[in-house]
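In response to reviewer comment 3 from the previous cycle, which asked for concrete evidence that the modeling workflow produces usable outputs, we include below a single protein chain processed end to end. The sequence was submitted unchanged, and the resulting structure tokens are shown without manual editing.
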Amino acid sequence: MSDSRESSPDWLRTFQ
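The workflow returned the following structure tokens.
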């Protein structure tokens, strides 16, 4: 990941 804080829900879905 590279400063993808704007895609918070994006990486959250992958982590879930």
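The mean pLDDT is 71. We consider this sufficient to address the reviewer's concern, and the full set will be provided in the supplementary archive.
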